[in-house]
Amino acid sequence: VYSPERLRLVLILLTLVTLPVVIGSSFLIYYYLRFGVMVDRRLQGERWMVPSKVYARPLVLRPGLHVVRLDGVARPALVAAAAQGLEGVRYVDPAGQFSALLGKYRQRALGLLALSALLMAPLLMLRYGPGPGLRRMLPPALAVALTPALLALSGAAFTFFDAMGLVLVLSIGVDYAVFLAESDAARAPVTMLAVLLAACTALLSFGLLALSGVEAVHAFGVTMLLGILLAVLLAPLGGRLRS
Q1: Can you spell out the DSSP letters for 66-82?
Q2: Is this structure's pTM higher than 0.85?
């Protein structure tokens, strides 16, 4: 059994080691997102400057049914509106339709996030009382609210995959708050050490997804990395450890 002084020393050493890593990772994530968005906007701007082209040889599916591919369309909504007035012409935009579908899924994911919070709050209030129970919900709620705000400051878009990541951030943040609430003062260093170690493993497992070249996986990883970081930093706001 470790003495309180030794546990306190281990906690201080762990904090001194992890704090620079966390702060450095935060700056790297911010500048990575900022410059990544700048590069994407620059490349997209150059691409949209290219005039639209129509391929000279359309694909003939059957007599009277042809497929013509457009390249460099800057305003697909205007093209779709113009095609509606032409008999026998239909404008098909798979990318736009897929984006609209993901937009609907994003709204459903946000609804799932709100429903999860509404189901968690009564259980915490039943366990700790109305006031303390709501205080346990404060750290994860702040993490969920601040994560998309910080991403927006860096210029990143909020997608369906970011919304799904916030659902996990809410769950993990509630876990951290409950762990601290259920521990007594004598085991405070052990509890804090356990929460920090759990956060480090979660940051490593989910945060590495931010390095993926796949946009969906990258967005999910960045949201999880920033959300878990905020959740563990805000976890003490949920209330003091039980005496």
Answers
A1: EE--EES-S-HHHHHHH
A2: no
